[in-house]
């Protein structure tokens, strides 16, 4: 418990002791005052600290946000057992040890059963208040934490995705200008054609770079145009083969993935007329494959691996499917996962969000209603018992509201934490799933 809670308990104890001393103590002596203060502090700290520690332990072991039903059941059982033990201990110390009003045998013979029972109800009231307060605090914390986490995840994912997409422009432009620079010296006419084709390709880059996924058909058309530029420069030194199944054309891949992989093929391999580089683009199962014969080029500067790393990271943000890389002595192959549809997690439907919020709001209202009912029960019933016994000892009518209302509270708890709407919804889903099969 926090220091603030101990200070609060101290003030409550002092105020209670003052009330009992001046209202119920016949002999106003210093010894009686100190005894009243001692007894008041004992009850306040044993019951308050005991219930507070139980609540703190249960919060750590069984948080409300993670196991609401389990926590509710454990809380009810624990506070009942714990408060019975704590009350019997406090009353024993009060009547047997401090006041010496009874012996141990008399205390456990049943003479103080009513006082014990009455005090247990007061203790349950305190415990119910602490647990209800703990539930509301935990609910607020978990709600705020979830909102903050979702915002951070969304911002982080968006920032990372934007960063990855922004790599495409400079990367593509740098490689294209290198090709154009070499063509200007070698073949000015082809350089002009290359410039026209490059503008067409760059338009595609600008159109697609803001998209998360594109169809294989669009990507293949773009790749063929890009391969035409490479063919212009390398002529017979590079050959391209496209083998795409018709049924895969309407499926999706990460945009500009083929362009980056084609660049890698040219960058890392030798291509001559005597030893041409063969690049195959084909579908294999649920993958779009880019394969080339391995003719490794010696490089002075080690590659940064921007292109392949970019593709792998963008796929990781969109799907759990992995990009596979195969390398042998003869070939190098990259397998890009084909997605049959755009990921549902891309955008959360606003209606779904609203419905989930309304369900959560209704659930919280149900739980708050139960704890309000429980606190009212623990407050009103002891008062009715006191009124009944104070005004009419021979007829104990308090049993009727105690049992009737108690059954109502038990039924309410069973409905909220047992077979409420969540149970009904679960059964409805099970029946619907069976009908689908």
TrEMBL record:
<protein>
    <submittedName>
        <fullName>2TM domain-containing protein</fullName>
    </submittedName>
</protein>
<dbReference type="InterPro" id="IPR036259">
    <property type="entry name" value="MFS_trans_sf"/>
</dbReference>
<keyword id="KW-0812">Transmembrane</keyword>
<dbReference type="Pfam" id="PF06580">
    <property type="entry name" value="His_kinase"/>
</dbReference>
<feature type="domain" description="Signal transduction histidine kinase internal region">
    <location>
        <begin position="159"/>
        <end position="237"/>
    </location>
</feature>
<feature type="transmembrane region" description="Helical">
    <location>
        <begin position="32"/>
        <end position="53"/>
    </location>
</feature>
<feature type="transmembrane region" description="Helical">
    <location>
        <begin position="73"/>
        <end position="94"/>
    </location>
</feature>
<feature type="transmembrane region" description="Helical">
    <location>
        <begin position="370"/>
        <end position="391"/>
    </location>
</feature>
<keyword id="KW-1133">Transmembrane helix</keyword>
<keyword id="KW-0472">Membrane</keyword>
<dbReference type="InterPro" id="IPR050640">
    <property type="entry name" value="Bact_2-comp_sensor_kinase"/>
</dbReference>
<dbReference type="InterPro" id="IPR010559">
    <property type="entry name" value="Sig_transdc_His_kin_internal"/>
</dbReference>
<feature type="transmembrane region" description="Helical">
    <location>
        <begin position="397"/>
        <end position="423"/>
    </location>
</feature>
<feature type="transmembrane region" description="Helical">
    <location>
        <begin position="114"/>
        <end position="132"/>
    </location>
</feature>
<feature type="transmembrane region" description="Helical">
    <location>
        <begin position="7"/>
        <end position="26"/>
    </location>
</feature>
<feature type="domain" description="2TM">
    <location>
        <begin position="358"/>
        <end position="433"/>
    </location>
</feature>
<dbReference type="InterPro" id="IPR025698">
    <property type="entry name" value="2TM_dom"/>
</dbReference>
<dbReference type="Pfam" id="PF13239">
    <property type="entry name" value="2TM"/>
</dbReference>
């Amino acid at each position: 418990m926090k220091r603030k809670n101990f200070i609060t308990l101290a003030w409550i104890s002092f105020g209670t002791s003052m009330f009992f001393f001046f209202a119920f103590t016949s002999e106003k002596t210093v010894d009686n005052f100190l005894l009243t203060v001692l007894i008041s502090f004992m009850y306040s700290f044993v019951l308050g600290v005991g219930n507070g520690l139980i609540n703190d332990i249960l919060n750590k072991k069984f948080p409300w946000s993670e196991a609401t039903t389990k926590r509710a059941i454990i809380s009810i059982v624990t506070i009942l057992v714990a408060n019975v033990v704590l009350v019997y201990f406090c009353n024993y110390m009060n009547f047997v040890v401090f006041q010496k009003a009874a012996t141990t045998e008399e205390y456990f013979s049943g003479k103080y059963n009513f006082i014990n029972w009455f005090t247990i109800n007061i203790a349950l009231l305190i415990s119910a208040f602490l647990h209800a307060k703990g539930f509301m605090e935990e609910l607020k914390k978990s709600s705020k934490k979830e909102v903050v986490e979702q915002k951070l995840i969304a911002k982080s994912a968006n920032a990372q995705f934007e960063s990855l997409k922004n790599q495409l422009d400079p990367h593509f432009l740098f490689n294209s200008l290198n090709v154009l620079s070499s063509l200007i010296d070698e073949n000015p006419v082809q350089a002009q054609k290359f410039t026209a084709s490059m503008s067409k390709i760059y338009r595609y880059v600008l159109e697609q770079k803001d998209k998360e996924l594109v169809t294989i058909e669009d990507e293949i058309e773009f790749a063929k145009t890009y391969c035409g530029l490479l063919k212009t420069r390398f002529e017979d030194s590079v050959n391209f083969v496209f083998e795409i199944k018709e049924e895969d054309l309407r499926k999706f891949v990460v945009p500009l993935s083929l362009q980056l992989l084609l660049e890698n093929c040219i960058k890392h391999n030798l291509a001559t007329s005597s030893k041409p580089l063969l690049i195959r683009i084909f579908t294999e199962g649920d993958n779009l494959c880019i394969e080339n014969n391995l003719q490794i080029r010696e490089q002075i500067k080690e590659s940064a691996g921007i292109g392949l790393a970019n593709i792998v990271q963008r796929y990781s943000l969109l799907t759990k499917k992995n990009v596979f890389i195969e390398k042998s002595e003869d070939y190098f192959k990259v397998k890009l996962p084909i997605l049959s549809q755009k990921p549902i997690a891309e955008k959360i439907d606003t209606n779904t969000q609203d419905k989930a919020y309304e369900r959560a709001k209704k659930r919280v209202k149900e739980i708050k209603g139960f704890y309000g009912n429980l606190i009212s029960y623990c407050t009103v019933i002891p008062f009715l018992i006191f009124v009944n016994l104070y005004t009419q000892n021979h007829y104990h009518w308090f049993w009727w509201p105690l049992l009737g209302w108690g059954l109502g509270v038990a039924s309410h708890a069973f409905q909220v934490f047992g077979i409420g709407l969540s149970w009904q919804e679960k059964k409805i889903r099970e029946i619907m799933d069976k009908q689908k099969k």
